[in-house]
From TrEMBL:
<keyword id="KW-0813">Transport</keyword>
<keyword id="KW-1133">Transmembrane helix</keyword>
<feature type="transmembrane region" description="Helical">
    <location>
        <begin position="284"/>
        <end position="304"/>
    </location>
</feature>
<protein>
    <recommendedName>
        <fullName>Major facilitator superfamily (MFS) profile domain-containing protein</fullName>
    </recommendedName>
</protein>
<keyword id="KW-0592">Phosphate transport</keyword>
<dbReference type="InterPro" id="IPR005828">
    <property type="entry name" value="MFS_sugar_transport-like"/>
</dbReference>
<dbReference type="GO" id="GO:0006817">
    <property type="term" value="P:phosphate ion transport"/>
</dbReference>
<dbReference type="Pfam" id="PF00083">
    <property type="entry name" value="Sugar_tr"/>
</dbReference>
<dbReference type="InterPro" id="IPR020846">
    <property type="entry name" value="MFS_dom"/>
</dbReference>
<keyword id="KW-0812">Transmembrane</keyword>
<feature type="transmembrane region" description="Helical">
    <location>
        <begin position="334"/>
        <end position="354"/>
    </location>
</feature>
<feature type="transmembrane region" description="Helical">
    <location>
        <begin position="361"/>
        <end position="382"/>
    </location>
</feature>
<dbReference type="InterPro" id="IPR036259">
    <property type="entry name" value="MFS_trans_sf"/>
</dbReference>
<feature type="transmembrane region" description="Helical">
    <location>
        <begin position="21"/>
        <end position="42"/>
    </location>
</feature>
<dbReference type="GO" id="GO:0015293">
    <property type="term" value="F:symporter activity"/>
</dbReference>
<keyword id="KW-0769">Symport</keyword>
<feature type="transmembrane region" description="Helical">
    <location>
        <begin position="119"/>
        <end position="136"/>
    </location>
</feature>
Length: 507
């Protein structure tokens, strides 16, 4: 089978369709982040609506469960859609993943029940469904972008797709702030009546608005042809692959130079065979382990925000009368600040460096600096940082997100889509991603168990309780530092750097 088509794809000039593919593929990551991160301000609304007797705070166990159920769905979606993506094609499943996300978004808003428990259980079910769609989108988006891109810019394009996650976080924060402001002006809640019935509508509306980006990209996903590499290498139809690429890229058969021939033995062995593990087992283990370790840290850090922001949130101060909508607004505002000041610079640096420096150096250095920052936060935490008001503390805390995005949070998404043969590509990406989500579940559940206070429900925490919680947070930060160092060490397990190489060379 001739590789001349792949040579042309690898050397194609950057053109409009590449940028269109970034947006279309990135919208899945955008929707993913919108829902995973909007749950933080929404739990503030839920706390004021359903947990007034608990100090207007959703119990940490419930909050972590809301995150964990979506992550469990994502892990299952990555495994199922990852395998099916290699069996029936990337494009055929691309719309299905988006439809599951749309159904989950709308279902979350229509969570119903006669009691608080029924409503939260319904919300959990639809978040699980949403998670399956989100998980399915990960291996498909990463693989489609890698198979469309030229080898010179492939890393940048894939990093740009992943950076849409940050814009999803910003969108969720902006929508939450807008909804809270609009509802606050229309219904005029007051400290004497801080929980209007409209607050129950507000959180549902915020979640349902997450369906808009998915709907906007559904048409374009259905118009995308199957990737040339899947059609040629898996379906063995080179002519169809060439015709598909001629429709969307500026290329013609006359422009395609002759290339080498693909040896059948390169892709004839079955998945999980002895030869598969000899050729790809080490890379699969490295991809899965680094994603697993990274997500323990990243999602633990997402939950730590509720403790870090504590001094900046007015509803944490019993002397201040704050409405439910105002409380959610402040959480969303702080989340937007962190995304704008810390995450976006990391994404920009990743896009700039990924094809210059390489994936593995960025991943190792990112893990290393994350470890240093977590250690700097953890060791003096009880003595110096516990009140979280020091600007240096907030600066260092923000750096954890910067180094994550200009490091392993981006590269763990990219590497599995580059290292494996076309017939195993989405499967292996799904396995690595599912390992990451398993780490995320361990992170969010383990952090709650490690840092929650001993005081009883409804009781006011004493100074001794605060000291115990601070000590637990200190230990958690030091553990996160150690996990980052392990991640840096595991990065050395990868067999090769993928910068500037074709996907066929990486096989």
């Amino acid at each position: 089978m001739s590789l001349r088509l792949f040579h042309r794809l690898d050397t194609a000039k950057t053109q409009y369709y590449h940028f269109q593919a970034v947006i279309v593929a990135g919208m899945g990551l955008f929707t993913d982040a919108y829902h995973l991160f909007s749950i933080t301000p929404i739990t503030r609304l839920l706390g004021h609506i359903y947990y007034e007797s608990h100090g207007n705070q959703v119990p940490p166990v419930i909050e972590s469960a809301m995150l964990a159920v979506a992550l469990l769905g994502a892990a299952i979606g990555q495994l199922i859609f990852g395998r099916l993506g290699d069996l029936v094609g990337r494009r055929r499943l691309y719309g299905l993943a988006l439809m599951l996300m749309m159904a989950g978004s709308i279902g979350c808003g229509f969570s119903v029940g006669t009691t608080k428990g029924c409503i939260l259980a319904s919300l959990g079910f639809f978040r699980f469904l949403l998670g399956v769609g989100i998980g399915g989108d990960y291996p498909l988006s990463a693989t489609i972008m890698s198979e469309y891109a030229n080898k010179r810019m492939r890393g940048r394009f894939m990093a740009a797709v992943f950076s849409m996650q940050v814009f999803g976080i910003l969108a969720s924060s902006a929508v939450t702030m807008a909804v809270c402001k609009i509802f606050g002006r229309i219904y005029h809640p007051s400290p004497k009546d801080p929980i209007p019935k409209e607050a129950d509508i507000a959180w549902r509306l915020i979640l349902m608005l997450g369906v808009i980006p998915a709907v906007m990209t559904f048409y374009w996903r259905m118009k995308m042809p199957e990737t040339a590499r899947y059609t040629a290498l898996v379906e063995k139809n080179v002519l169809q692959a060439t015709q598909d690429m001629e429709r969307v890229l500026d290329m013609s058969p006359g422009q395609i130079p002759e290339g080498h021939f693909l040896q059948p033995s390169q892709s004839s062995y079955p998945l999980f065979s002895k030869q598969f593990f000899l050729c790809h087992g080490r890379n699969l283990l490295a991809c899965s382990a680094t994603w697993f370790l990274l997500d323990i840290v990243f999602y633990s850090n997402a939950l730590l925000q509720s403790k870090i922001y504590k001094k900046y949130l007015p509803d944490e101060d019993p002397s201040k009368a704050v409405t439910a909508l105002e409380a959610a607004f402040e959480v969303a505002r702080l989340q937007a600040i962190v995304a704008s000041c810390c995450m976006i610079p990391g994404c920009i640096a990743a896009v700039f460096l990924i094809d210059r420096v390489g994936r593995l150096p960025i991943q190792a250095v990112g893990f290393f600096f994350m470890a240093i920052v977590y250690l700097s936060l953890g060791v003096p935490y009880v003595k110096y940082w516990n009140d979280h008001t020091d600007p240096l503390f907030m600066f260092l805390y923000g750096l954890t997100f910067t180094f994550a995005y200009c490091g392993p949070n981006t590269t763990t998404f990219i590497l599995p889509a580059e290292l494996f043969p076309a017939r195993f590509r989405t499967t292996c990406h799904g396995i690595a991603g599912a390992a990451g989500k398993a780490g995320a579940i361990i992170g969010v559940v383990g952090l709650v168990m490690a840092t929650q206070g001993d005081y009883k429900k409804g009781a006011t925490p004493t100074q001794g309780d605060d000291q115990k919680e601070a000590s637990r947070t200190r230990v958690a930060l030091i553990i996160l530092s150690g996990i980052c160092l392990v991640g840096m060490a595991v990065t050395s397990m990868f067999t090769k750097e993928t910068k500037g190489t074709s996907l066929e060379e990486n096989e």
